[in-house]
Amino acid sequence: MLYHINIIMSIVKVCKYYYNSYCAGISWYIAYKDIQLSTIVMLALEGISIGVILLLGLIVLGKHGFAIDTAQLTLQGTQPGSIVSGLVLAVFSYVGFESATTLGDEAQKPLRNIPRAVIMSTVICGLFFIVLSYIEVLGFQNHTTPLNKSEAPLNDLANLAGVGFFGLVISLGAMVSLFACALATINAGGRILFSMARHNIFHASLGRAHGKNQTPHVAVTLVALVAFLLAASTTLLGVKVLDNYAYFGTIATYGFLFAYILVAIASPVYLWREHQLRAVDILYSVLAVVFMVIPAIGSVGIPGENSLFPVPAAPYNIFPYLFLLYLVVGGGWFIMLRLRRPEIIEQMENDLEAVHTRFGDMKKV
């Protein structure tokens, strides 16, 4: 039995070595071919991964007699600084739930299905994170290696529960989940580039749709290529696969936070212009901005021994400034575009107004 497990683990290691190229290549083909195929594959792969993790969670709970951990529920021994640090990590793990909004023009009954997808993603993922966090903390109680020091928490959790072979299943599930994330990113990123190219911000070739597949094939190809080259380049420089995921994911999360804050500010302004603004909308907006600002500040850190927001360790301490540089370059380019070709901005505003009118008419039907 041990011999067979070692053979399988060797195969997994080989797969991990070539994972970047396989993942980018297969993800590109599925995104290039058909959005319906993409969504089905993403849903199936994530379902398998989540199912395996939930099964492990049930085993851990059963090992502890399904007892209620009052220490967790009462936040026993928890410090304010720890809560803030945990909030930063939680938000960084939670972004991307709104990716379905990039498929608005391709979805059936978008005014019904897109909001449902966003809300259900938020609720289901939130419950999943809460339950699994509770189980992991419970499973690591009295263990020599604390949860925050574990390099592979779910694998260690499987060993502690006496089902070490689940570690292999979890590793395969993680690879499957990362593939689904790559596919989702290529789909969303390709459609954003496609839309920007249609507004003449990027080269017009990125705004072409495939004649048969009706997918933004050029934009999808570019996003897949860039994703592969970035990951492959850092891997060749000696960066581990999971470190790659953490580094690029952290930088990308700043973009999500920045967009969320802008949307939270713009939403009440939009509702006011539509004469639909309510006091509760303003409250939601303020709360959203506050909750997004906390992880934003936490990611940068405030120097000081007893600071609630300690400065992150290298290289994470430089990532916020890299993102700021990216914003400056992108913002400067957009300002230059606006000054040199103001008709592009006017066309964008007209197109957005046309979309608003079209969806407004769909509401009346």
UniProtKB/TrEMBL annotation:
It is found in: Membrane. Gene3D superfamilies: Amino acid/polyamine transporter I. It comes from the Bacteria. It is a multi-pass membrane protein. It holds the Pfam family AA_permease. The keyword Protease does not apply. Keywords: Membrane, Transmembrane, Transmembrane helix. The chain crosses the membrane at residues 40-61, 81-97, 118-140, 160-186, 218-239, 245-272, 279-298, 318-339. Residues 65-303 form the Amino acid permease/ SLC12A domain. PANTHER family: AMINO ACID TRANSPORTER-RELATED, MEMBRANE PROTEIN. This is APC family permease. It comes from Brasilonema bromeliae SPC951. The lineage of its organism: Bacteria, Bacillati, Cyanobacteriota, Cyanophyceae, Nostocales.
